[in-house]
């Protein structure tokens, strides 16, 4: 079934003031229907049945304008419960439609449906939606395209055309069976068998050359590529042979344009990239391959597509291939990410909190738990785990949002700490005493309106690596990153308080730190987690609860009538 979309124009004069920010009340309401169902797909010479939305991989594009609203009815015709998350959409006062399973809702059961109310506010650019249940997002995901509202335009010349580019991972096996087996044994989940670009592995993968995705372009025209990393566990380098990339936005927030030959994009991140077809008419490879800076197993393959010029010419027998950084090239990552700066213009201003009311310091670690059965698949007969501030998150059976809203007991604890339980040489010590975390369902409670700073500190425990962290319900300013241990005296002197990028997902460097800052002006229950799916499955998560303000306009909205039940 295709996407059904009805647009209702709600146009009237005036402005709605929310949290001191004016929003034009003229907006559109969109209605979509997403059917979750099993669909057969053939890749890498074999066919499998997998969960999809509307039979598509990737799923359908959700298109809105800035400030619009979308009602998305999700009908689950699959075999198990699923939720959908609208990644990067702040959902002001509306955590009920945010989507993470057993955090803000219980799953939509097979045969049932739920209508999400997706409320857009100041986002403009590219975001994405994905399943937020176990590993089902591997096949259940798609783009969100947020165009400028009527009467406004891009802060750059309007491109001739635009195209969504989604990077993902392909597993020959059933992804739910893969994570269920890993959870049962305590072992590392199987790695993917290939990466895909708009659903196709491309050259040089088996049985993939004929089905390689092709992007037709006209010489002399400029195109806007909406790049999304929907991959499960790997950050990716991306490039186009002989073509420069101009990055103009990240996570639906505009940047000062960056001219580059490649980008680094983590799982969960989105980027808007301008590409001008200024080469001789021919075929040119678009390619992506992982950046990997740890010792764990990973998929060391490459996915490709073809940038194909329109016209009469003899195509090359072997298209030009881009020069991508080495898989372990940390310097290439830094050379790109340190150039990211918010546009910070009159039409697209930023508002960096200059003071801090609440300081939180969070260690980010991969750990081990003691085996609770005859044998386990982790190192030294352990169960692999992960933690924030040495607490490995346990997902409850009843969603935390309902428990908070209805004052239900024995679902979560409201004592997630502002500091780790002990201070040590975070990036130098890795002894066995640090491997074992505590477990629990702990949330951090924050008063409405507080200015919050969170320092994420990577550790050298187990297998350290770069961690892409994501906080639901907010965009925030990435003030700075560095290597080694965060120093409360010297590290803040390196902060960018002038034009830091406003993002929803960011990388904590291997054996390093990253600092974000935001105002807690969105009441609700908001999930915070590593977007490497294996780490999230192991417990590298927590929940931030922002309390209501003093008015109804600064308080959580009442729940919808048809929330999925938790039985």
Automatic annotation (TrEMBL):
One of its GO terms (biological process) is lignin catabolic process. Its cofactor is Cu cation. Its EC number is 1.10.3.2. CDD domains: CuRO_1_LCC_plant, CuRO_2_LCC_plant, CuRO_3_LCC_plant. Residues 37-150, 164-311, 420-548 form the Plastocyanin-like domain. The keyword Metal-binding applies. SUPFAM superfamilies: Cupredoxins. InterPro entries: Cu-oxidase-like_N, Cu-oxidase_2nd, Cu-oxidase_C, Cu-oxidase_fam, Cu_oxidase_Cu_BS, Cupredoxin, CuRO_1_LCC, CuRO_2_LCC. Binds 4 Cu cations per monomer. It is found in: Secreted, Extracellular space, Apoplast. It catalyses: 4 hydroquinone + O2 = 4 benzosemiquinone + 2 H2O. The keyword Nucleus does not apply. Pfam families: Cu-oxidase, Cu-oxidase_2, Cu-oxidase_3. GO terms for molecular function: copper ion binding; hydroquinone:oxygen oxidoreductase activity. Keywords: Apoplast, Copper, Glycoprotein, Lignin degradation, Metal-binding, Oxidoreductase, Repeat, Secreted, Signal. GO terms for cellular component: apoplast. It comes from the Eukaryota. NCBIfam families: laccase. Lignin degradation and detoxification of lignin-derived products. This is Laccase.
